[in-house]
Amino acid sequence: MGFTAIVDIEYPSKLGPPLAYPVRYDVAMQRPDKLRVLQSGAGAPNEFYYDGKTMMAFLPEANLVAIADAPPTLEAALQQAHDKAAIYYPFTDLLLPDPYKAFTNKVLHAFYIGPSGAVGGVATEAVAWATNDVFIQMWVGTDDKLPRRIRAMFANDPLKLRHDMQLSNWQLNPSHAPETFASAKARAQPMGFAKPVAVPAPPKACGPEGRAQSRASAGQRCADQDP
């Protein structure tokens, strides 16, 4: 199948109200062992390819590519990408063999909200459910039964930030060309998959005389600044 997911994820701002950063994912999948995800929008564009033997993460603007041997099934490859490189997609449950099973795992409460004609340009039915971890609302096409919008709030998030995903351009059983699941553009020297590690910022000057900043305390005060 293929689809487009546009995801708004909220992040706190210094003013209080959250900021939304929309990210677009163009997805092509072929069971049992092929996936391509092209990501654009907020942040640097990146591409992910899996062909049943290898998986590759590619940053076109920086010409950086990471390649690793991959297991023979899509589900195992997604798990490996998460475990080895912290790669995760908000629509992962839709790629699994049984999305319904994934969505309803550990459900405590679920209810039907009602019909809506305002999502995705088609008639939909809105439903909601909750687990101990997350509250989800979903709009599903009345006729095609395809998800058109999903909103989530996580219980362990003290700020109650919202995650909103719009789904469109659905293609069921398309004919994907073999070259869909690889990239001839990735010509950089490949590196191994690894989880991203935050690099500490270098010490900064502060104050009118450019005094060296002390990073020994969490407050990031200047070396001669009163506590």
DSSP E strands, number: 13
Give the structural class.
mainly beta
Report the span from N to C terminus.
59 Å
Could you give a short account of the major beta sheet?
11 strands, antiparallel
User: How do the strands line up in the largest sheet?
Assistant: 6-5-4-3-2-1-11-10-9-8-7
- Quote the beta fraction: 35-45%
- The best one-word shape is globular
Question: Could you explain how this protein is built, in words?
Answer:
The chain is mainly β and 227 residues long. The protein has three helices and 13 strands; from the N terminus they run E-E-E-E-E-E-H-H-H-E-E-E-E-E-E-E. Strands 6-5-4-3-2-1-11-10-9-8-7 form an eleven-stranded antiparallel beta sheet, covered by helices on one side. A two-stranded antiparallel ribbon has the order 12-13. A hairpin with a 3-residue loop joins strand 4 (46-50) and strand 5. The termini are far apart.
List keywords for this structure.
single chain, 227 residues, mainly beta, 11-stranded antiparallel sheet, two-stranded antiparallel ribbon, 3 helices, 10% helix, 43% strand
Briefly say what this structure is:
The chain is mainly beta and 227 residues long.
Topology of this structure?
Elements: E1 2-11, E2 19-30, E3 34-41, E4 46-50, E5 54-59, E6 64-69, H1 74-85, H2 92-95, H3 99-104, E7 109-119, E8 122-130, E9 134-141, E10 147-154, E11 162-171, E12 205-206, E13 211-212
Antiparallel strand pairs: 1-2, 1-11, 2-3, 3-4, 4-5, 5-6, 7-8, 8-9, 9-10, 10-11, 12-13
